[in-house]
User: Which sequence fits this backbone?
């Protein structure tokens, strides 16, 4: 019985998902190799002096290009919108957008502009975050009930 390859062949422009907890993952775009080292472009506030503030915002996030192993050892390709949206051309659109965005300040917002939103925006030209949608579906009924009973 052979071992399953946990590191699939990456193609520049692929969305890479790095599981962090049971319900949350970090996302980036495979940028390609430099000197044999694979790199990923991702939205992060990791080295910012502004941590995730109240309501899930960090004012000083940025798109960074880091070696894949720095972002995470466990990952998978997750181009989950390929069946609904055509991926944009990596060399003509995605890479130039990444290169333009690197180092520029971005407001990270867990609900409206997180790393998954950034990855889908780069690959497809649209923002989507399935993990936030799943969490929202779980909490919305609770919020709705509280609002209706005027508990909030």
Assistant:
């Amino acid at each position: 019985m052979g071992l399953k390859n946990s590191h699939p062949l990456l193609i520049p422009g692929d969305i890479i998902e790095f599981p962090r907890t049971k319900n949350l993952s970090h996302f980036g775009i495979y940028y390609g190799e430099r000197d044999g080292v694979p790199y990923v472009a991702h939205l992060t506030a990791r080295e910012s002096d502004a941590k995730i503030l109240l309501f899930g915002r960090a004012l000083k996030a940025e798109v960074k290009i880091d070696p894949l192993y720095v972002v995470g050892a466990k990952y998978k390709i997750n181009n989950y919108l390929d069946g609904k949206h055509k991926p944009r051309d990596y060399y003509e659109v995605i890479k130039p957008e990444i290169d333009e965005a690197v180092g520029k300040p971005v407001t990270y917002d867990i609900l409206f502009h997180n790393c998954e939103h950034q990855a889908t925006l780069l690959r497809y030209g649209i923002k989507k975050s399935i993990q936030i949608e799943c969490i929202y579906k779980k909490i919305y009924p609770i919020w709705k009930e509280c609002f209706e009973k005027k508990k909030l």
